[in-house]
């Protein structure tokens, strides 16, 4: 829930828009009064357990395989510091700022539910960290996706203690203590259970899932537009996208994709030029043209399933042990990342398949045996010029990489913590490879748009559909019309930016109105 651009965090579920606003657009946050009250009530119960002679996991014991040791009260502050320091064991490249901000927000939400026993002051410090734009340095490796994203979240908790390394709001790398002092944020001395409450969640996996769903929702619309451009420029037919044919197999994503393609192709002079059966001897188009709605549609339905899982997770309070409404503090297994890991893997699979079909359409443009009258490789002077020959190589290399990224991470498990944690989800790994797959899909679709736009220009004087012409016009703002060979890499990157920022879809929608 946003108020004047500030996301209010309370016990109620966060929305996708809340996560995107904080992660990608730098929105500030505040804890609601309900959140503060819920945290204060659960904290009272934790403090009662801390004073009890009966051991309570996470409050007065060690952790994981060391949970059998009862910790003397004089050592419990040290216990929390030691937990965070030892678990902040990440390695490898820095994780992107948007991912770290998402996991910070999602952890704050779980704290705000009142099911972790955290003190309100600790949660308020995390909120201040987010609002100030301070981003703890989190590393690529360290989470097994079970017991939560322990190492990534521990790096955040370390910052709350005034330790470790961060990037400030300007992106400058500096010690956490220095950044907190400059922002006027007092480091926290963690009390009983707080270290565990800060690190025992699936927030990194969930954050990356929400971000991927945002990206893929945009990219499957782009795939509908790029496929329509290819069908048009390759002199294919739009009759196969008719709603009465899609209704015979009533998958909602398929119907939406077919409807989008039909709308994008409306009014095409190129399509009209070969509708007369006497002028067109082809009976059926290749699968990469004819079955585009079936593939992109199935991807849409998979994204919808992933969004359902993410919505449930956004309504969750993941911690162990959890403080229940009746005051009981109970161990549980809700930190296991399997629900997230599975859909993260599913999305990498569909991204790879949509990309694979896109690459096949691009390849058809370059082959004189299949492109129906266009020059070889769409070159200005074939033989002297190579046209888009190597653009397709680049596209094929990305698709090949995406196929490897589609191998599921969630089927793997490496036992840890002296076999106490003997089955893990590897959901963090699934999320990390999905981010690379999403980037790859944007690049593959960009090459298709670039190539299809060139082909549409080469069909002159035949006129493309108003919607596809709008896409070509948007591309031509940074990429010149066909001509002799030019330095192609910058043109590909311009097309990638147009795809990634939604420019392709926006251009088509300037004619069609909102696409499904």
Automatic annotation (TrEMBL):
Which InterPro entries does this entry report, sorted A to Z? Aromatic_Lyase, Fumarase/histidase_N, HutH, L-Aspartase-like, Phe/His_NH3-lyase_AS
- Pathway(s) it belongs to: Amino-acid degradation; L-histidine degradation into L-glutamate; N-formimidoyl-L-glutamate from L-histidine: step 1/3
Modified residue 2,3-didehydroalanine (Ser) is at which positions? 147
What GO molecular function annotations does the UniProt record carry, in alphabetical order?
A: histidine ammonia-lyase activity
**How does it get modified after it is made?**
Contains an active site 4-methylidene-imidazol-5-one (MIO), which is formed autocatalytically by cyclization and dehydration of residues Cys-Ser-Gly.
- Where does it reside? Cytoplasm
Q: What is its EC number?
A: 4.3.1.3
Protein name (Swiss-Prot/TrEMBL): Histidine ammonia-lyase
Which reaction equations make up its catalytic activity?
L-histidine = trans-urocanate + NH4(+)
Entry keywords, A to Z = Cytoplasm, Histidine metabolism, Lyase
Record-stated family: Belongs to the PAL/histidase family.
> What is the species listed in this Swiss-Prot or TrEMBL entry?
Nonomuraea pusilla
């Amino acid at each position: 829930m946003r108020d004047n651009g500030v996301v209010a965090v309370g016990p109620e579920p966060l929305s996708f828009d809340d996560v995107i606003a904080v992660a990608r657009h730098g929105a500030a946050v505040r804890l609601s009064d309900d959140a503060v009250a819920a945290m204060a009530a659960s904290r009272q119960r934790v403090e009662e357990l801390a004073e009890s002679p009966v051991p309570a996991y996470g409050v007065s014991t060690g952790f994981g395989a060391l949970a059998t040791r009862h910790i003397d009260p004089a050592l419990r502050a040290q216990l929390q510091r030691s937990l965070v320091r030892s678990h902040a064991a990440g390695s490898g490249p820095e994780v992107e700022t948007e991912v770290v901000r998402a996991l910070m927000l999602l952890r704050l939400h779980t704290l705000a539910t009142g099911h972790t026993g955290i003190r309100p002051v600790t949660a308020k410090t995390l909120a201040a960290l987010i609002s100030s734009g301070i981003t703890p340095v989190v590393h690529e490796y360290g989470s097994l996706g079970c017991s939560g994203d322990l190492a990534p979240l521990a790096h955040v908790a370390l910052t709350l203690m005034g330790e470790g390394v961060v990037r400030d709001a300007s992106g400058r790398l500096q010690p956490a203590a220095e950044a907190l002092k400059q922002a006027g944020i007092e480091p926290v001395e963690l009390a009983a259970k707080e270290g565990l409450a800060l690190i025992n969640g699936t927030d990194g996996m969930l954050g990356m899932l929400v971000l991927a769903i945002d990206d893929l929702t945009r990219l499957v619309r782009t795939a509908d537009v790029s496929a329509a451009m290819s069908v048009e420029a390759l002199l294919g037919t739009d009759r196969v996208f008719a709603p009465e044919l899609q209704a015979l197999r009533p998958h909602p994503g398929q119907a939406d994709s077919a409807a989008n393609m039909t709308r994008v192709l409306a009014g095409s002079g190129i399509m009209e030029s070969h509708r007369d059966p006497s002028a067109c001897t082809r009976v059926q188009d290749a699968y990469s043209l004819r079955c585009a709605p079936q593939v992109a549609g199935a991807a849409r339905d998979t994204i919808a399933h992933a969004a359902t899982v993410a919505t449930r997770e956004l309504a969750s309070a993941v911690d162990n042990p959890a403080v229940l409404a009746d005051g009981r503090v109970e161990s549980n297994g809700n930190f296991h990342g399997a629900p997230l890991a599975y859909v993260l893997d599913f999305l990498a699979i569909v991204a790879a398949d949509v990309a694979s079909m896109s690459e096949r359409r691009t390849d058809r443009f370059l082959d004189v045996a299949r492109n129906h009258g266009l020059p070889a490789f769409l070159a200005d002077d074939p033989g002297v010029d190579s046209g888009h020959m190597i653009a397709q190589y680049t596209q094929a290399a990305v698709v090949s990489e995406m196929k490897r990224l589609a191998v599921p991470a969630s089927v793997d498990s490496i036992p840890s913590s002296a076999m106490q944690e003997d089955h893990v989800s590897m959901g963090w790994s699934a999320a990390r490879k999905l981010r690379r797959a999403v980037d790859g899909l944007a690049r593959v679709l960009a090459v298709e748009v670039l190539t299809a736009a060139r082909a549409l220009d080469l069909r002159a004087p035949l006129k493309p559909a108003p919607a596809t012409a709008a896409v070509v016009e948007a591309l031509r703002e940074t990429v010149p019309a066909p001509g002799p060979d030019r330095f192609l890499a910058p043109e590909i990157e311009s097309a990638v930016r147009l795809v990634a920022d939604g420019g392709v879809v926006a251009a088509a929608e300037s004619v069609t109105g909102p696409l499904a």
